[in-house]
Design a protein that fits this description.
TIM Barrel, 14 helices, single chain, 8-stranded parallel sheet
Length: 413
């Protein structure tokens, strides 16, 4: 507490209300991706292998093999993550209880167990239709397929997924993000770029024909994936334009889904000009959209600074999207989520009003000096205090708890 009090005075000298920052941080939800816990396998009876440009590499022991194990692992992870949490589910995690049904037949009842789990542990839910790892991904295409039976199958899946998200919103009494991403594209140079995009637009028009209460619909672009290196139907330009023309559809940005020199932190302010909400996936791309566990790097800090610079913590909807099968999966959840929380805290402790004033006055020398000095401010003391207020271990000691869990639970699977 002594170090906290000393550090707090340093920030308060810059005009930052540290106690207010700590209280605010505790209320910012982070939607944690369920698929880190089982390498994006899902629990469908068919057990189809990963496809659609997605790979989870590694063979670390202890992967969750069923709903019960995944829930148990998630509860362990969030016991070491401060703040407000949500759980992001994919359709492939439905609780079918032996029913032999396909994704175009899913109903809210197949997710009642997840709703009960969310209520039990006090987290919100978000949802994602699953357009990959399925035999009906025909020639690498789903909603843009020229095969009408294939396209209609996936349209039905998209519609039913929105109904499931609406069920979550009703049961939990809060908005639910329903995010649509498809793997559609071609490995080599296409003969027709327009046709697939026209079909995708028609598919989306059918899926989003009506608005659902409590559902925040969004579409997610990508540059390319494995096997679709030359052309992606759902490009950034396509989805941004689509969201701009459809009042209840938003454009989700993922910081692994752009060209290597593009920075998502630079895109946030542009989208906030035009949209009242901005869904965001935070991951870590290493040379491509590799979905590495989130690290506390410069781009993550800059993304979070953009959120606080524009007073947008209630507009930017933060979700995680990473999967690593080469390390302890529970630890991966904890490391990634805590790093996002640390970056948010670091960003919230910046004297943004003072920095903005210096820019507007043209005092770029003082602005640069202050920006650099802030980098070495001891925000770790504030982090320790924040964790203490959240009844969560602040330092690396949480790791021993996870290793104990590995020995007692994970290694026995």
């Amino acid at each position: 507490m002594k170090s906290y009090a000393h550090t707090m005075k340093k920030y308060e000298a810059l005009g930052v209300n540290v106690d207010k920052v700590v209280q605010q941080l505790a209320t910012i939800p982070i939607s944690i991706n369920c698929w880190q816990g089982d390498d994006i396998q899902g629990f469908e009876p068919s057990g189809e292998s990963l496809s659609g440009g997605i790979q989870a590499t590694g063979s670390y022991p202890g992967r969750a093999r069923n709903h019960e194990e995944l829930m148990e692992d998630f509860k362990k992870a969030i016991s070491h993550i401060p703040g407000t949490k949500r759980l992001s589910l994919h359709a492939m995690y439905a609780m079918l209880e032996g029913e032999n049904i396909d994704r175009d037949q899913l109903k809210p009842k197949h997710f009642e167990g997840w709703v009960s789990f969310a209520k039990e542990i006090g987290v919100g839910l978000d949802f994602n239709p699953t357009f990959f790892s399925h035999s009906k991904v025909k020639d690498g295409l789903t909603l843009s397929s020229p095969d009408e039976d294939t396209r209609q199958f996936w349209i039905r899946h998209g519609i039913l997924s929105r109904e499931i998200a609406a069920f979550f919103a009703y049961e939990l009494g809060e908005p639910v993000v329903n995010n649509l991403w498809i793997p559609d594209g071609f490995k080599d140079v296409p003969a027709d770029r327009l046709g697939p995009r026209l079909r995708l637009k028609d598919s989306l028009d059918q899926i989003y024909s009506t608005q659902f209460d409590g559902v925040i619909d969004c579409v997610e672009s990508k540059v390319f994936g494995i096997g679709v290196e030359s052309y992606t139907v759902g490009s950034s330009e396509f989805y941004l334009a689509y969201a701009a023309k459809h009042p209840w559809v938003y454009n989700l940005i993922d910081n692994g889904h752009y060209h290597p020199t593009e920075m998502v932190s630079d895109k946030i302010s542009s989208l906030l000009v035009h949209f009242d909400k901005l869904p965001l996936h935070i991951t870590r791309a290493v040379r491509w959209d590799s979905d590495h566990v989130v690290a506390l790097d410069d781009e993550l800090k800059e993304i979070c600074k953009e959120i606080f610079r524009h007073d947008a913590s209630d507009k930017v909807l933060i979700g995680l999207d990473f999967f690593d099968a080469s390390i302890n999966r529970v630890a991966a959840w904890v490391i990634g989520a805590r790093n996002v929380q640390k970056a948010l805290l670091y960003a919230a402790l910046q004297p943004h009003e003072q920095l903005r004033e210096l820019q507007n006055k043209g005092d770029f020398t003082r602005l640069f000096m202050l920006q650099e000095e802030l980098k070495s401010m001891p925000f770790g003391d504030i982090w320790d205090y924040y964790c203490e207020t959240q009844n969560v271990i602040a330092g690396a000691e949480w790791y021993e708890s996870v290793m104990e869990y590995e020995n007692e639970v994970l290694l026995k699977r």
